[in-house]
Amino acid sequence: MRLYLTEGNPHCLKVVAAVELTGTRCELQFVGVEERVVPFLAHSKLPCLQLDNGNYLFSTNAICQYLFTLRGKEPSDLTNQWLEWEGTELQAALSGALYMAVVQGKRQEAAGALQKKCAYIDQSLTKRSFPFLAADAITVADIVLWGALYPLLSDSTFLPGDLKALRSWFERVCAVAACRKAVESILKGKGLQALKPYLQKQPAPSQRAETPASNEPEGGESAERVLTEEEIGAAAESWSKGLSAWPKPKPIEHPVLPQPNKKNVLITSALPYVNNVPHLGNIIGCVLSADVFARFCRLRNWTTLFVCGTDEYGTATETKALEEGLSPQQICDKYHAVHAHIYQWFGISFDHFGRTTTQRQTEISQDIFRRLLDRDFLLQDTVEQLRCESCQKFLADRFVEGTCPLCNYEEARGDQCDKCGKLINATELKNPQCKICKGTPVVKSSKHLFLDLPKLEARLVKWLEDSMVSGNWTPNARFIARSWIRDGLKPRCITRDLKWGIPVPLEEFKDKVFYVWFDAPIGYLSITANYTDQWERWWKNPEQVQLYNFMAKDNVPFHSVVFPCSLLGAEDNYTLVNHLIATEYLNYEDGKFSKSRGVGVFGDMAKETGIPADIWRFYLLFIRPEGQDSSFSWSDLLLKNNSELLNNLGNFINRAGMFVCKFFEGRVPEMELNDDDKRLLAQATWELRQYLQFLEKVRIRDALKCILNISRHGNQYIQANEPWKRIKGTDADRQRAGTVTGVAVNMACLLSVMLQPYMPSVSASIQEQLLAPPQCNVLTEEFVCILPSRHQIGAVSPLFQKLETDQIESWRKRFGGQQPDEGSANQSKTEVKPTTETKAAVAEDAGKDADPQRAKQLAEEVTKQGEVVRELKAQKAEKAVIGAAVTKLLELKKQLVLAEGKTPEAPAQKGKKKK
């Protein structure tokens, strides 16, 4: 491995210390700030770690985690929380403080900007809610926080004497030999002055000294942004305009069609497969994320079309039909209705929700196929494939499971390995097994058609680079697409020996159908064509249409390589994706969702809990797995509902409306703004603009936090001004109470609009209570007085209900998985939470007698997997890859305990693993 560094770069401290502390063999190479070290990037971000397989890591925290995990030092959940806090919260304050101290010479201001963050760390150390120096063993959290803080805290004037816990911890980490070596390597004994040449070449950081504290693991305070007088004056001026010059909401008239010289947004979410009921992870991974963006686009008055539908062809449908004694078409009809009902309950605002078993799908798919054939982008070849003699059929790739030939992952599918992300052929699998009957398939020959990806590679590369430069591609989407190109493209088979699918329109292939991954993305086109006969105005109009694809990361290869190649080769001016938005995976508690084992909440079950759909939406969006995998947690759902929704957002909106009703007879009072009011308007305006910027970049979690920040500021504003007291005082006091109430209720109305993409029903309830004018439902960069003096509001009532612990425990038990045996005393225990669909399910082993042979096998697997974790050479070099390996190791250990006849321990609570 090779680590690229820059002298005087403060971000390099932590990674050098991590290299030294873990003893990793790694070449350190110092380069200039402007030097290009990564071939496919115009400007390389330093530090960066080049792995032995040629991949790169750029995030300093990811590099540190990777190095620690290589040595078997796996971070706890609490450690991960603090690493995220450092990256999202502390760095924002540090960048400004460092610039002020080193470049501008404002040392006192820099210390002030950092004070609250240091106090928060000190408080956490005092409470022992930091995972640092656990059992005197230094952790990755120690290194990351130390490396971030060292440039400033090494100067004693930046570290107040009353922060004793922080001072003690900092001195202890500074004494570690690896840290001393890192300091000498990067700062060369020059202290803060060593940073000046580097910082002078960087853009001046935002004036925002503090960022929202909603990510802080255990509370913390949020400070107002440092606002300029110009910003405050501009906010007050905007406020005074009211809705007089406000744009009117654009009515939705179907069919929605792109307009010349307007912003036209086409949104798709990955087509859910029809034979499965979607679980919460499926919902957040595509349709819910896409819905938030679609609703946002409509609030911006952009011409917006949002389409989706069920993917219905393939072997999985045939198999489900056999299981249920129905025809494939009957299965599609049944589960299409199930999906449609679930998405309707979740409030997904499709313009059209269709399906792929239509005549238009056949016509468009066969047309694209013929165009590829005519342009010589298809190949014929006789291939060996797996056939199950017991089932009397060739097996679709997803119905073969075995050991990956590349990374030895034991549960790889026949088309792709979920661990290393590589495409594989089913015949390459080691120890293949038919997932239908569990038999061993045999290899048979059959003639098939292939998409000639190598012949299309040059076109694809040019398009990819153009799209990634001009569009918003999530980092994982960029990485996966580029890794395919780097590894070289191979011809991809597009036909299958099946009956349920689109027929191949060639006589010699009349007994075959298209591979579902060839025709399924074409479903976006055919679904639009079933919505409007003018579908080509969307799909053959790249000059005027911006296309956004939403999906989970496992769908990226097909949307970034295979499907674009089909459209490029068809040479028919198709609209290609401009913005590919991919999530990581959402897990359930400490494991995976499993319908067969009753683990996790599925779409048809969410309604049964009695929790409103908007609460589910809010929580899933709050924990949306963007940079890494995340987990649904019942305890965290309770916490977020009761704190963020009930005590923060709901409390502010309800108080604002109640004050109008109680003190001013339901009419918005007269408002005379003072400097504090104007400053609040400027703060809300700044958060609104951040919200707009985040959502335009499809940073959905960050934008949601802007909403919560506004309500948090509003609560603080009400609390500081105490209108319930002032209303009983002098005329001036009553006037002040009126102003505070009027400003607050207008902020509540603003929040109702910003909430629409996230919680549409709650948004509608707020606007109904406030009798908000429909014209307010357009988002611009200005916060205006929506509800003027004398505006009559309606009846006000609470928006949210408190969740109780006993409710949560009941649901945790209900959705935690049931044992199959009746009458067992431990039947409803939820300790067994499978995290991988291993061949020997934990649920089948629980409570049974010891199995020495199985225990011996598992012991070997535990040893083998432990070695994988310690010497991980991940193909993608992402946190998710490391996390998957660690998760599998923990799962194997659980199975080993059961096979030994022991009772597994209850799962440790989050954050309690390394005490």
TrEMBL record:
GO CC annotation terms, alphabetical: aminoacyl-tRNA synthetase multienzyme complex; cytosol
GO terms for MF: ATP binding; methionine-tRNA ligase activity; RNA binding
Keywords: Aminoacyl-tRNA synthetase, ATP-binding, Cytoplasm, Ligase, Nucleotide-binding, Protein biosynthesis, RNA-binding
Family the entry assigns: Belongs to the class-I aminoacyl-tRNA synthetase family.
InterPro entries on file: aa-tRNA-synth_I_CS, Anticodon_Met, Glutathione-S-Trfase_C-like, Glutathione-S-Trfase_C_sf, Glutathione_S-Trfase_N, MARS_N, Met-tRNA_ligase_1, Met-tRNA_synth
Main location: cytoplasm
CDD domains recorded: Anticodon_Ia_Met (cd07957), GST_N_family (cd00570), MetRS_core (cd00814), MetRS_RNA (cd00939)
Record's subcellular location: Cytoplasm
Annotated organism of origin: Acipenser oxyrinchus oxyrinchus
Swiss-Prot/TrEMBL GO biological process terms: methionyl-tRNA aminoacylation
SMART domains registered for this protein in UniProt: WHEP-TRS
Protein name as annotated: Methionine--tRNA ligase, cytoplasmic
Stretches with biased composition (Basic and acidic residues): 845-864
Entry EC no(s): 6.1.1.10
Lineage: Eukaryota, Metazoa, Chordata, Craniata, Vertebrata
Top EC category: ligase
PANTHER family named among the record's database cross-references: METHIONINE--TRNA LIGASE, METHIONINE--TRNA LIGASE, CYTOPLASMIC
Keyword Ligase attributed: yes
Coiled coil: none
Catalytic activity field: tRNA(Met) + L-methionine + ATP = L-methionyl-tRNA(Met) + AMP + diphosphate
Disordered: annotated span: 200-225, 815-864
